[in-house]
Amino acid sequence: MKNFLVLFSILTICTACSSTPPTHFIINTAPAVSANSPFVQTINIDVTDKRTRQAILQQDSNGKKTYLSAQLPTTSFIKAGLTASFQQTNSLGINVVDNPQINVNIEKMAIKLEQSTLSYETKSLVILAVTINHGTRTLNKTFKRQGTSKGPLTADIAVLEQEFNQLLIQLFNDISQDQQVIKYLTKTGN
């Protein structure tokens, strides 16, 4: 048993030393949407991110904090993801009129990873404040998604990326399928 623990410890240390740390947190939430789509031209989406630190992953390992940003600006992938989500919603026959303006402010977007020697725990939180201006009407609504995960040994960044991407997709669907949002974007909301 003692030999097994020594071998296990050596393998864990060697694996940790040989892996190259990632340079970016990969966000891939939606397929590309054609800019020529009538829907994309009908709706205007503007995304702002006024957070002081725009990193996605905050890792705390034995008291040392490191940060990892996304490969794209946060405003770019939020806009692309929302556009794709609204595109899918539009395939259901929603008729958007009068060029409504959707303003999205990223209030919170982070994964906090606490890494210890033999385990890890994550807490993910994304909060988007959405404002829709359509003619003389305005809708202000906040959308939130959160998640947690735990595991043995070292957290796999690829798994964390996949979980976070799923969280974003769920949030985009929450927004694009919300009945109040649809009402403000369509003729039925007049």
Uncertain regions spanning at least 5 consecutive residues:
3-11, 13-18, 31-40
Q: Give the topology string: H per helix, E per strand.
A: HHEEEHEEEHH
- What is the beta-strand fraction? 25-35%
Structural class: alpha/beta
Oligomer: single chain
Helical stretch tally: 5
In CATH terms, what is the fold-level topology? Rossmann fold
- What is the total number of structural domains? 1
Biggest beta-sheet profile: 6 strands, mixed
Report how far the terminal alpha carbons are from each other.
73 Å
CATH architecture: 3-Layer(aba) Sandwich
**Overall morphology:** elongated
Radius of gyration: 20 Å
Give the class-level CATH name. Alpha Beta
Secondary structure: number of strands: 6
Nearest-integer average pLDDT: 78
Question: What proportion of the residues is helical, as a percent range?
Answer: 25-40%
